[in-house]
Amino acid sequence: MSQPPTNTPPVYLDYLNRFDVEALHLTDAEILSAVEDGLRMQGAGDTSIEPRMHIRPRAGVEGHFNVLRGWIGGEIDSAGTKVVGDFVDNYTQDRPSEYGLLTLFDPRMGAPKAIVDATGITEMRTGAVTALGAKYLAPDKPKVLGHIGARGTAYWNVRLLCHLFDFDEVRVHSRRPESREAFAAQLEADLGRKIIVTDNWQSCLEGADIMVEASRLSQPTPLFKTEWIKPGALVIPYGTMSAVELNLTDIMAKVVMDDWGQARGIFGALREHVDQGKLTAETLHAELGEIVAGKKPGRESAEETILFWHRGLSLSDIALGHMMLEKARRLGVGQRLRFW
């Protein structure tokens, strides 16, 4: 192996594992601020993002890998790749359904900068994008939140939405009774409020001001009925397998995405709507970053029924990972590894 010149500057990696991430004790405001900054930079055009890729390891396994790639300029100035293993049946081994790893690189010379456990990042940034979508698109003073799903991202959806809004009711439902009961108990303990557990989709969603679908279906199944949506509601479906009906987009005044480039993937809540031409680049109202950056309007009236579909952005991972590394350096958390 050839040796680098003796005068070559060393390269170090910052490393944060799961326990380091927990030691940062990130606040809701810190998470939302970091992800909102990334969205604003996306809207301003100071980013680069590639559509996510999927790797399926072998037939007979209910799972796949998501590979997300992107770059953010400005003070962040990092390129990054996140790989997430998404395996539905991990709960049978008492494991999270998703494991994630974020790598950050210097975009000026290509050297690696950091390796960060992204399991928590994935959950936090997904919840933050859900909540920020609601910040700009939800009806004024929403009173009822209906949430389907109890996987890792679901906790941060509800937690961060409750940080932004004073709901009268928070309803949750998931397929397994033990899962939804444990989910509600954790939320009640952490948020100090009552969580209503329902035993079916309709009683959870119907009439809610904000409707979030984060289910774990094994195949597309239209369990979320368009007729349950009241005028003026905000609907946020993002399950890997679609749970919505094909006529969902027919009642929407606006459809917003996190990134249109992600719409052509092989999975997603509106996969069929894109394939059949019911959602196109021309009918899409805006990307959320454009709204955050002030380039396009968000909600403009109480009567607008709005759909926000987010597939997950590498930019949110990079922005949140950057903020975490900055805080870790201030607190002396994590390790520094010699790479070169």
Topology:
Layout: E1 12-16, H1 18-23, H2 28-44, E2 47-55, E3 63-72, E4 78-87, E5 98-105, E6 112-117, H3 119-137, E7 144-148, H4 152-164, E8 169-173, H5 177-191, E9 196-197, H6 201-205, E10 210-213, E11 234-237, E12 254-257, H7 271-275, E13 286-287, H8 288-292, E14 306-309, H9 314-331, E15 335-338
Parallel strand pairs: 1-6, 7-8, 7-10, 8-9, 10-11, 11-14, 12-13, 12-14
Antiparallel strand pairs: 1-15, 2-3, 3-4, 4-5, 5-6
Helix pairs in contact: 2-3, 2-9, 3-4, 3-9, 4-5
* End-to-end separation: 13 Å
Number of strands: 15
Q: From the alpha-carbon coordinates, what is the Rg to the nearest angstrom? A: 20 Å
The SS-based structural class is alpha/beta
Question: What features would you describe in this structure?
Answer:
The chain has 340 residues and is of the alpha/beta class. It folds into two domains: 12-121 and 315-338, 2-Layer Sandwich (ornithine cyclodeaminase, domain 1), CATH 3.30.1780; 124-312, NAD(P)-binding Rossmann-like Domain (Rossmann fold, 3-Layer(aba) Sandwich). The protein is built from nine helices and 15 strands. An eight-stranded parallel β-sheet has the order 9-8-7-10-11-14-12-13. Strand 2 (47-55) and strand 3 (63-72) form a beta hairpin. Helix 2 packs across helix 3 (119-137), helix 3 (119-137) packs parallel to helix 4 and helix 3 (119-137) packs across helix 9 (314-331). It is globular. The two termini are 13 Å apart. The model has no long low-confidence stretch (mean pLDDT 92).
